[in-house]
Amino acid sequence: MRIVLVGPPGAGKGTQAAYLAENLSIPHISTGDLFRANMSQGTDLGKQARAYIDAGQLVPDEVTIGMAKDRMGQSDAVNGFLLDGFPRNVGQAEALDVILKDEGVKLDAVLDLEVPEDEVVKRIAGRRVCRRDSAHVFHLSYSPPKTEGVCDVCGGELYQRHDDSEETVRTRLEVYHTQTEPIIDYYRAQGLVVTISALGEVADVTARAMEALKQSTEG
């Protein structure tokens, strides 16, 4: 299967992508992984991306598209893939259509993870991270520390990252609504969009997604 995963920040795309890719036996291709791999390997695209990032600029679409095209062309993606974070806008979606058409294949579904905006803010703004070890993460509502402001594991101070502040989250949501959400309408016009609720336990959301994908492709 060839799937694009879409959803706002805090929808759990990374978590669901990993489980879905494993269940479907296809590679999980995320934009973050593409950038890290290309920059660490020193590819031409990686060098271009690093130059923009070091200059504090956004990486142009053509660089991201080039990385995605290379990754989708690797042997483990011959029978399918799950794209997470790409395409990020309609221009990238149009480029993806061209890439797939040139390869003689097409997308099977675009899975849209739906989460109310207030829940997104609650999920992200409630996170607290340990200053001693950033792997120790808590949540004020879902997994609170035993002592407020103190890491259960090592006793380090818990703090809210700048990226997790409510103001930053709402800014990220606005960017999502403006840049990425339009691809849902773009793909809906092609009859590819499958929307599910991303509320509830991780396993329940995964089961919901698998069933929706199954019905979509069988239909």
Short characterization:
This protein is 49% helix and 15% strand.
Protein model, in words:
This protein has 219 residues and is an alpha/beta fold. The chain has one domain (2-218): Rossmann fold (3-Layer(aba) Sandwich). Helix content is 49%, strand content 15%. The protein has helices at residues 13-24, 31-41, 44-54, 61-72, 90-103, 117-125, 166-180, 182-188, 202-218, and strands spanning 2-6, 28-30, 81-84, 109-114, 127-130, 137-139, 158-159, 193-197. The strands form 2 sheets. A 5-stranded parallel β-sheet has the order 2-3-1-4-8, sandwiched between helices. It has a 3-stranded antiparallel β-sheet with strand order 6-5-7. β5 (127-130) and β6 form a beta hairpin. α1 crosses α9 (202-218), α2 crosses α4 and α6 packs across α7 (166-180). The longest helix has 17 residues, at 202-218. The protein is globular, with a radius of gyration of 18 Å. The two termini are 14 Å apart. The model has no long low-confidence stretch (mean pLDDT 95). It is found in: Cytoplasm. One of its GO terms (biological process) is AMP salvage.
Helix and strand arrangement:
Layout lengths: L1 E5 L6 H12 L3 E3 H11 L2 H11 L6 H12 L8 E4 L5 H14 L5 E6 L2 H9 L1 E4 L6 E3 L18 E2 L6 H15 L1 H7 L4 E5 L4 H17 L1
Parallel strand pairs: 1-3, 1-4, 2-3, 4-8
Antiparallel strand pairs: 5-6, 5-7
